[in-house]
Amino acid sequence: MSDQRSMPVPDGLEGDRLDAAIARMFGLSRTRAAELIVDGNVLVNGGAAGKSDRVQAGSWLDVTLPPPPTAPVPRPEPVPGLGIVYEDSDIIVVDKPIGVVAHPTVGWTGPTVLEGLLASGVQLTTSGAAERQGIVHRLDANTTGLMVLAKSEAAYSVLKRAFKERTVDKRYHTLVQGHPDPLRGTIDAPIDRHPSGDGRFAVVAGGRPSVTHYDTLEAFRAASLLEIKLETGRTHQIRVHMAAMRHPCVGDYLYGADPTLADRLNVRRQWLHAVRLGFDHPTQGRLMEFESPYPDDLAKAVEQLRED
């Protein structure tokens, strides 16, 4: 929308050229001020004037300032490797690749699941915060695997409640250092931000209740492949609980993993994959179950351990 300004010429601009006076009064360049005059956007005492005309103090100016140019809004870009496993009018299930977060966050400049889907023409519900539309749960940037998002408002409401009430079956596989003792068990330990304030999370007295069930699927010389079932969904929950047991996820340097083992297996991120996801369809009620195979980097690490 144009900005209309009306005012007298100040005494200090007596005798200046009209373009120079407009430039000083409105903080414009001389070139831009001249363009406004030539385009008929400046009237002096109600009439047209030339850019080189000299102004008199007290003369009345009517100036129409065009709206400032708006910066182009960046268009979402498709996300390579973001696989669509299932889609209907209410939900979409995706297989998230490495290096992708669920939705835009402060400080993150990389790809997101949300923007990748929007770029592909997927319409998600607008329920919730604008930057998190359709998001009902998240995976860390370098955790791969299955996510479900809501496309309808009804699905968003039902799925949010299902995750809150712990009725969603979330299964992960993780490769951890060493051999947990016992081989099967439950970790019930509260999690909150690490006291250092460095972005990590930790088992902290008074933190949010967090429950992780684990079962050893396969044991190797220096590592174990575990299946994890989550009751709660705290940030970094599996990584924090495994580190608290002194069996950090292989490659998870943030939580104390041994770089020697990760280098030997060529693992460049935490070995953690959301392998299965089960829930009741939010509008149809039928049980939905999905599985995701290991990405190449994780599969090759396990193959190498078996060969060793």
Describe this structure in words.
By secondary structure, this protein is α+β, with helices and mostly antiparallel strands. The chain folds into three domains: about 5-65, Roll (Structural Genomics Hypothetical 15.5 Kd Protein In mrcA-pckA Intergenic Region, Chain A), CATH 3.10.290; about 75-160, 2-Layer Sandwich (Pseudouridine synthase); about 165-308, Pseudouridine synthase (2-Layer Sandwich), CATH 3.30.2350.10. Helix content is about 20%, strand content about 30%. The chain is built from seven helices and 15 strands. Strands 5, 6, 7, 8, 9, 12, 13, 14 and 15 form a nine-stranded mixed β-sheet that branches. Helix 1 (about 20-25) packs across helix 2. The longest helix has 12 residues, at about 155-165. GO terms for molecular function: RNA binding; rRNA pseudouridine synthase activity. This is Pseudouridine synthase.
Question: Which features characterize this protein?
Answer:
15 strands; 3 domains; PsdUridine_synth_cat_dom_sf; 7 helices; 308 residues; Pseudouridine synthase; 4-stranded antiparallel β-sheet; alpha+beta; Structural Genomics Hypothetical 15.5 Kd Protein In mrcA-pckA Intergenic Region, Chain A; EC 5.4.99.-
**So what's the overall shape?**
elongated
Task: State mean pLDDT (0 to 100 scale).
Answer: 92
Strand content: 25-35%
Largest sheet entry: 9 strands, mixed
Q: Label the structural class.
A: alpha+beta
Number of helices: 7
**What helical percentage do the residues reach?**
10-25%
The CATH topology annotation of the largest domain reads as Pseudouridine synthase
The separation of the N and C termini measures 70 Å
What's the SSE pattern? EHHEEEEEHEHEEEEEEHHEEH
Task: Give unreliable regions as ranges.
Answer: none
Q: How many beta-strand elements? A: 15
Compute the CA-based radius of gyration: 30 Å
Mind telling me the CATH superfamily name of the largest domain?
A: Pseudouridine synthase
**Overall structural domain count:** 3
What is the CATH level 1 assignment of the largest domain? Answer: Alpha Beta
Q: Give the name of the CATH architecture of the largest domain.
A: 2-Layer Sandwich
EC number: 5.4.99.-
Function: Responsible for synthesis of pseudouridine from uracil.
Family: Belongs to the pseudouridine synthase RluA family.
Keywords: Isomerase, RNA-binding
